[in-house]
Design a protein that fits this description.
Oligomer: single chain
CATH superfamily: Class I glutamine amidotransferase (GATase) domain
Largest sheet: 9 strands, mixed
Number of domains: 1
Number of strands: 9
CATH architecture: 3-Layer(aba) Sandwich
Number of helices: 7
């Protein structure tokens, strides 16, 4: 299997690639980060990478006054999609993809935080890679916004609080609102750095479930990424 050049757009230091980094290192793929929160970031030539991964962050997709890099980032993501690169988005990354494809991104009535059930659609069950996910499973969520399904986007996963948890656009653009990549350290970072200070005893108790859920999700993601690499 060919070695991949993976380019990652990172919005805050505390949200990294998680288990995707473990997978990439184990298989000898090259991972390069564009740290948008640092000055003098530079986007590479589209031809220089195989996969683009857009990570999460606490900002809204329209926070261009606070984060002026959002505007050129959107243009770069749009170019990658048009050039038929493999593009993954997680949380904020998924919201950016949805907006670029013409969908609305807006605040949720109540945020979705912690471990909650995710259900796959019939389309996921028929898909060669997404059928690796169980029909229903527990995923980690930490988001205050959600998106509508873009035109020509195909819904892959839903949850009770957020109908559009994951979608695929064409064959090579994949968006996850939740965090299948999260590690145990990553969960602790979400709790410590949440701008809205959601540190209730109930939420902390729920996060004790980390180890069991994370191990299961990492195994699913390993198989999923292998299959996507084979297919695309």
């Amino acid at each position: 299997m060919a070695k991949l050049k993976i380019y990652c757009l990172q919005h805050v230091a505390e949200e990294g690639l998680g288990c995707i980094d473990y997978w990439a290192q184990a298989r000898g793929h090259t991972v390069t980060f564009c740290k948008l929160y640092e000055p003098n970031y530079v986007f590479p030539a589209i031809e220089s990478f195989d996969w683009l991964i857009i990570l999460g962050g606490p900002m809204h997709v329209d926070d261009t006054d606070k984060h002026p890099w959002l505007k050129p980032e959107k243009a770069f993501i749009e170019q990658a999609i048009k050039k038929n690169k493999v593009v993954f988005g997680f949380c904020l990354g998924a919201q950016l993809i949805a907006q670029i494809l013409g969908a609305n991104v807006y605040n949720m009535p109540q945020p979705e935080l912690g471990w909650h059930s995710v259900t796959c659609t019939p389309l996921a069950n028929q898909h060669e890679a997404f059928n690796i996910f169980p029909e229903s499973f527990i995923g980690f969520h930490w988001h205050y916004q959600m998106f509508d399904l873009p035109k020509h986007g195909q819904l892959i996963m839903s949850s009770e609080a957020c109908k559009h948890q994951a979608f695929i656009y064409g064959k090579r653009t994949i968006a996850f609102q939740f965090h299948p990549e999260v590690t145990q350290m990553g969960v602790a970072e979400f709790l410590a750095n949440d701008e809205n200070k959601n540190k209730s005893a109930e939420l902390k108790d729920a996060l004790v479930e980390n180890e069991m859920h994370i191990a299961a999700m990492h195994e699913i993601m390993r198989k999923f990424l292998n299959k996507i690499n084979e297919m695309l």
